[in-house]
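Reference record
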Amino acid sequence: MSTSPKEPPSGTPAQTDKHAHAAHAKTVSAFLGPGRIRLNSLPPLSLYVHFPWCVRKCPYCDFNSHEFSGESFPEQVYLDALRADLELALPLIWGRHVHTVFIGGGTPSLLSADGLDRLLSDLRALLPLDADAEITLEANPGTFEAAKFARFRASGVNRLSVGIQSFNDRHLKALGRIHDASEARRAVHIAQSTFDNFNLDLMYALPGQTLDECKADIETALSFAPPHLSLYHLTLEPNTYFHKFPPEVPDDDTASDMQDWIAARTHEAGYEHYEVSAYAQPQRQSRHNLNYWRFGDYLGIGAGAHTKLSFPERIVRQVRYKHPASYMAHAQAGTPVQEEHEVGPRDLPFEFMLNALRLTEGFPVHRFFERTGMTMTSIESALDEAEQRGLLHRDHQQIVPTPLGRRFLNDLQALFLKDPP
C-alpha cells in the first residue's frame, strides 16, 4: 500500500478550508437543534486514538490495521492529521472533560518515543484531560524496548495493554504473531517494571489447543499477577484469513470447558469477572472500557475510528475514513468524517443493551433513561420476555443478566431489536 497521502478534495487550500469549516459549523448547529429524545445530562467522555499500522496482519484480525510497506510509516504526517482531526472535533465537545484515553490499533507501540510524546502533548494542549485520566497504550511484545517504554511512561501513559495471545510458541505461530514465547515473557517483565497498571490480552480455543494447554497459558499469565486480564475466545470473523481458510479449532464442548475453567481459576486467584472477556483485581477494571459498556460517550480520531457523542436531544455516531492515506488527506482538508448518522429511538434500546448487558453487574434502572432519554416502558415487553426465559433478573433498582443470560448473551441482546416500522 502507499503510505503517502492521497490528493485531498479539489479546490484551492483556502477554498477547501472555508468550505470544510462552513460545513462543520452547520453540522454542530444541527446537533444542538431540536431532536427526538431529551437528555437531562451528558455521559462521561472518553477519547480513542487509532493507529492503523502493524508489522504483520494476523489471520484472525478484523480490526482496521495495515502492514506498512517500505522502511517505516509516515509518523509525522499521521500525527499532523490526528491533531487536525481533533481540532475539527473540538466544537462537538466544548466544556466536556475527557476521563480516559485509549491509544489502540494496529500496533501503536510502533510509534517512536518522540512521536508518542508529541501525540500526548497535542492531546493535553487541546483537551481538558482529567488530572487522573487513565491513558492506555496497546503494545505488541514484538515491539518492546525497555528504554522506549520507560519514555512512554514518562510522557504520560499510565496503563499498558499487552497483546500476548499465548505463551505457547506453536500457538503463536498459528496465530501469525511476530513474537515468540520468550519475547512474551520479556514483555510482561518490562510492563511490570515500568507500569503500575497493565493488562494482558490472551486468547483461548486456539487452533489445535487442548484444555491443558489453555490452562498452562492462563497459569503463566496469573504467575505475573497482572492487575487486569482480557481473555478472548478465538472467533473466525468475516473478512479475515481464518474466515476464508478456517483452521481446526476445539469443538464447542472443549471450548466450553476452557471457559468454565477460566472463570473458576480467575475467581480463585482473586479476579472479578466483571465483563464477558474482562477479569480484574479489585479496583483495577478498565475505566475506558467501562465507559463503553455503560453507554458513555467517546470521540474517536484516527483512520477508521468510531465516535459516539450525545447532545441534549440526539445521539450521533461517526466513522472516520478507513484507509490511512485517505484519512490523512481528508483530515488535513478538514473532512475526516466519512459516515455520520443519528441513532434514533428505534435503535437506541438495542445499542444500549448491546453494551450494558456485557457487564456482570448489569446496570441500574435509572441509567437507561439517563443515557437514552427513553422510558423503561419502551422496553417493557422485551424485559418481560427475557425475565420469563431466565436470561435476566430485575427489580426496581437494577437489571442484571443471569448466568444463563451471560452464556446466551446474543439471544438476550437480540430481544431488544425492534422490527422496522
